[in-house]
Amino acid sequence: MKLNDRGLLVVISGPSGVGKGTVRKALFSMPKNNLVYSVSMTTRTKRPGEVDGKDYYFVTKEEFIARKKAGKFLETAEFVGNLYGTPLDKVNEQLDLGNEVVLEIEVDGAQQVKKKVPDCVMIFIVPPGKQALYDRLKRRGTESEEVIAERIAKANREFKLAHRYDYIVVNDDVANAADRIMAIIRAEHAKTDRSIHKYMELIEEN
Amino acid sequence: MKLNDRGLLVVISGPSGVGKGTVRKALFSMPKNNLVYSVSMTTRTKRPGEVDGKDYYFVTKEEFIARKKAGKFLETAEFVGNLYGTPLDKVNEQLDLGNEVVLEIEVDGAQQVKKKVPDCVMIFIVPPGKQALYDRLKRRGTESEEVIAERIAKANREFKLAHRYDYIVVNDDVANAADRIMAIIRAEHAKTDRSIHKYMELIEEN
Predict the structure, then answer these.
(1) Angle B102-B104-B106 (CA atoms, 0-180°, nearest 5)?
(2) What local confidence, expressed as pLDDT, does residue A139 receive?
(3) Which of A206, B26, B125, B173 could form a disulfide with B129 if both were Cys (CB 3.0 to 4.6 A apart)?
(4) Those residues with Cβ within 8 angstroms of residue B49's Cβ, 6 or more apart along the chain or in another chain
């Protein structure tokens, strides 16, 4: 029996190149989960094959800005001239249904979410060592030395943000990291702050 | 990779009759655990077959009282004229070895432990409803109506202490309750407060 029926807003973040996406994928492939993605809203043009409401919610720049002004986003970001955001109402719908909404986002977005939803679960994914992450960033592609140096500098700044998170999970082994995140989700549901309300009702009733 | 090498002090408590002992046994039978019991110290007479240092540490009343005055117990209790206590040094030895020390104790003792070791993990085991616990207390044995009424009154007082704990775990199914406690232990190790020190070292080193 679960004493907290509402889903959790789980924020997965970490330094660039740590493998957040891989961990998130491993997490979603775990048995008996009730995890859901949050579909982002964007102003960028729909690509062939993309479905509105599934890949993204596609909106005009004007609509996006109006929504942002109205406080309808959990977090927003700009990337090569296009705006991206996590719609608050869609996230709340899922949480009310009892689903855990997982956001895999950059550290800036994570801080925005924490401000809007203080009881979200903030998880910082870290590499087993700095060198492991540097190697990953170098291996990633065909980028110039300059681009790689920039990424390493960014990662070095992001490494120091761990204290802003509730949990630190090492991505030394993807399955292990995903498993630990599942344990965090289970534990968070049992936290007194989240479960005492229903417990008190239970004790009053019968 | 675990970012917290020290074991956790896990306090399992709850209203009388909720089945703390059964949950604790299920917990210890789980695979790949590094849980250890804490052996209590007592002034009661050693019974045939009992081993000093295994079942209990047997000491005289004078020694017990001297140790208590010196602050050498995590918690103490009196039961039918005998004194019982959890020796702090033995607990710390196990925590330093990286073992999780599990204390299954009454609510009064749990509060004493919380005061001495603020970073212990406080878990409150609750029944799926009050009636379920009343039935258990009645089924327990051949006690008089009076004794049963007293126990129910005690449980009713204890029900209300949930807010003093970090987690509330329902004992509707023993395996499920044990499983949730294991998740709590894993999650607690990943908590930023417990893991940031080693993480910062890791990031400095390589």
Answers:
(1) 145
(2) 76
(3) A206
(4) none
